[in-house]
Amino acid sequence: MKKICVVTGTRAEYGLLRWVIDSIQSSEMLELHLVVTGMHLSPEFGMTAEAIQADGFKIDKRVEMLMSSDSSVGISKSMGLAMIGFADAFAELNPDLLLILGDRFEIFAAASAAMIARIPIAHIHGGEITEGAFDDAIRHSITKMSHLHFVATEEYRNRVIQLGECPDRVNCVGGLGVDVIKRTQLLGKKELQSDIDFEFKARNLLVTFNPVTLEKNTSASHIDELLLALGSLAGTGLIFTMPNADTDGRIVMQKIKEFCDKNTHAKVFESLGQQRYLSCIQHTDGVVGNSSSGLLEAPALNTGTINIGDRQKGRLKASSVIDCKPERDEIRRAIDQLFSDNFQSSLKMIENPYGHGGATERICEILEKKPLHNILKKSFFDTPITLKNR
Questions:
Q1: What is the CATH number of the domain that holds 267?
Q2: 33-49, pLDDT tens digit by residue?
Q3: Are residues 130 and 248 in the same domain?
Q4: Neighbour-count burial of 349, counting CB atoms closer than 10 A to its CB (0-12 exposed, 13-18 middle, 19+ buried)
Q5: Are 247 and 211 within 8 A, CB to CB?
Q6: CB 121 within 8 A of CB 97
Q7: What is the pLDDT of residue 69?
Q8: Rounded to whole angstroms, what are the CA distances from 375 to 87, 169, 183, 249?
């Protein structure tokens, strides 16, 4: 059996990986090793390792890395701690393959440790672009450290090949967010209200806002502009989720908490969990902020998105996504468009660029069948574009 080590560090990324992990665990040809790190091990972010165990998964290793700092120095030191922890974990588990998703700094640390340990790496959701975050550089770096690629669209596949990866190692499987929605039994509206202890208003928004990590000292002003726009709305319920553990994230958290303390129609959650979060997307009038879920999952639920600023700039977007600047008047105009009858009617005909499901099965089938011997050494694949530029 192939020993597949899956690393997860955040609630959002685990939500996408959850059914892949389940399929690996159920496979007769694969053996699951699960390593959790980052926000999963922090009470400040909901201690979501407990939710992973509640889903029926055994956690083989816990890699502590988060420090009580969201400065650039603190994040860098956290990455150093993670490298040490992953080196020890991989030495003990001795996996045949590391499977990772995305573009966060804790995943970069895991990939780096695996590369040095000569462990093949399979990367999910490569080739994407997020120009406003340093996640963009991390994602492409992980692509170059990886030996198998599972991408969401043909455009992203072409981009991974453009980075020099051999086409027969780059597999277009679709977006995992669609699979998660199809496999999750969402809550009804009344059940959801009871479960989160929040009474829906005539209109409701789900708000998820993260710092733009390639901009200095903008987090406070951006969240202020968003809260001023939201504060001017009448008869609108606001459900906030806390941002990820990113540079300058704590100022965003503080301001959201202060806003919710002053406004009875607003409530904040450290972690809603996948079922409740997706149920909120389904039963609210729109998703507001700069989370990838507004682009990856919301279109699959025919829900509109207001995408603020540059954090997600460059990702493929459905017609249900409204882009705007991080300025209160721009955000208000976007909200007015979101609430309009014409826009809400158009949501029934959304074409999701991330496919219609099946990514989980495709990934596991390839993991089962793909030989791993001699996979570590890679040749740089020259595309016509790279050849032209020489």
A1: 3.40.50.2000
A2: 999 999 899 887 788 89
A3: no
A4: exposed
A5: yes
A6: yes
A7: 74
A8: 21, 10, 32, 39
316 lies in the same domain as 333: yes
pLDDT of residue 390: 46
pLDDT number for residue 387: 57
In a domain, 180, yes or no: no
Give the model's pLDDT for residue 385. Answer: 64
What is residue 388's predicted lDDT score, i.e. its pLDDT?
A: 56
Question: pLDDT of 344-383, one tens digit each?
Answer: 999 999 999 998 899 999 999 999 999 998 899 999 999 7
Q: Range of 365's domain?
A: 2-174+358-388
Q: Which residues pair with 111 in a beta bridge?
A: none
Is 343 in the same domain as 376? no
Q: Is the dihedral of CA 304, 306, 310, 312 positive or negative?
A: negative
Count of other CB atoms within 10 angstroms of residue 100: 28
**Which 3-state string (H, E, C) describes the chain?**
CEEEEEEECCHHHHHHHHHHHHHHHHCCCEEEEEEEEHHHHCHHHCCCHHHHHHCCCCCCEEECCCCCCCCHHHHHHHHHHHHHHHHHHHHHHCCCEEEEECCCHHHHHHHHHHHHCCCCEEEECCCCCCCCCCHHHHHHHHHHHCCEEEECCHHHHHHHHHCCCCHHHEEECCCHHHHHHHHCCCCCHHHHHHHHCCCCCCEEEEEECCCCCCCCCCHHHHHHHHHHHHHCCCCEEEEEECCCCCCCHHHHHHHHHHHHHHCCCEEEECCCCHHHHHHHHHHCCEEEECCCHHHHCHHHHCCCEEEECCCCCCCCCCCCEEEECCCHHHHHHHHHHHHCHHHHHHHHHCCCCCCCCCHHHHHHHHHHHCCCCCCCCCCCCCCHHHHHCC
pLDDT at 260 over 90: yes
Q: What was the pLDDT predicted at 305?
A: 98
CA distance 319 to 97: 37
> Which tens digit of pLDDT belongs to each residue from 171-184?
999 999 999 999 99
- Residue 389 confidence (pLDDT): 53
The span from the CA of 113 to the CA of 363, in Å, is 23
Greater confidence (230 vs 75) lies with 230
- 198 & 345 share domain: yes
Predicted pLDDT of residue 215: 76
